[in-house]
Amino acid sequence: MTLQEAIEARHSVRAYKNEPLTEDVVKVLEEQIVLLNREGNLHMQLILNEPKAFQGTMAKYGKFRNANNYIVMAGKKAEDLDERIGYYGEHLVLLAQTLGLNTCWVGLSYSKVAGTYELGEDEKIACYISIGYGETQGVSHKIKTVEQVSNASDITPSWFKKGVEAALLAPTAVNQQKFSFEHVGVKNNRHQIRAKKGFSMIGYTKMDLGIARYHFEIGAGEVNFDWV
C-alpha cells in the first residue's frame, strides 16, 4: 500500500481486536518513532499492552474498546508544538495503515497512566493516538470541497488541487476541517504555498493543520514548492 492509498483507506477506528501487535510491526513503528522524534524535536512514545488509558469514563463515551496500544504524543512546550505533533504523528498514522493497523487521534478521551510514559523538562502531552488491529476499517465522513478550502482554479497547477484533495481526507477534530491552502505564486522557480488554520471553539486547529499539511505533501507529489 502506498501512502496515497493509505490516505484513501484510512478512517478513525476506536474498537480493536484483543490481540497484541506483532514483533515485526512493533520494530518498524519504534524505529520510525526514533527517526521522527529526532526530525521533529518531539518525544513520541509507543505504549504496548496497557489497557487502563482507555478504560475511563471519557473513553467509554468515546466508544473505545480493546484500545490496549497507543502512542503518547509529547514534546517540549512551544508555539508550534501542536502543529509538529500533527505533522509527524500523521507520518505514524499512515505508516500504521500500510502495516495493516488502524488508528484514531484522541484529544480528550484518554487517561494518563503514571509510569507508562516519560516526560522531560518542560515537556507536555498533546494527545494520544490509539493503534491496533481494528474490528472494522472505520467509515468515511462528509468532507468539504476543494473550492471551500483553497484557491485552486484552472490556472493553478494540477498537483496543487491533488494536494488539497489529499488534505481533505486528513483526520481533524470532530471533522471540522478548519484549514485552507493558497497557491501564492512562484518565486525563484519554486511555487509558494500558504497553509492556514481557521478559528474553532473546539480547538486542535494547529494540530489539524499539521496533519493536513503532511497529506497535502503526499497528494502533491515530488514538486518544487515551499511553505510560506
Automatic annotation (TrEMBL):
Molecular-function annotations in GO: oxidoreductase activity
KW Electron transport (keyword) present: no
Gene3D superfamilies documented for this protein: NADH Oxidase
CDD domains reported in the protein's UniProt record: Nitro_FMN_reductase
Keyword field: Oxidoreductase
Putative nitroreductase TM1586 domain residues: 3-220
Pfam families documented for this protein: TM1586_NiRdase (PF14512)
Superkingdom: Bacteria
Keyword Lipoprotein recorded: no
InterPro entries per the UniProt record, alphabetical: Nitroreductase-like, TM1586_NiRdase
Entry's family note: Belongs to the nitroreductase family.
Name of the protein in its database record: Nitroreductase
Organism: Segatella bryantii (Prevotella bryantii)
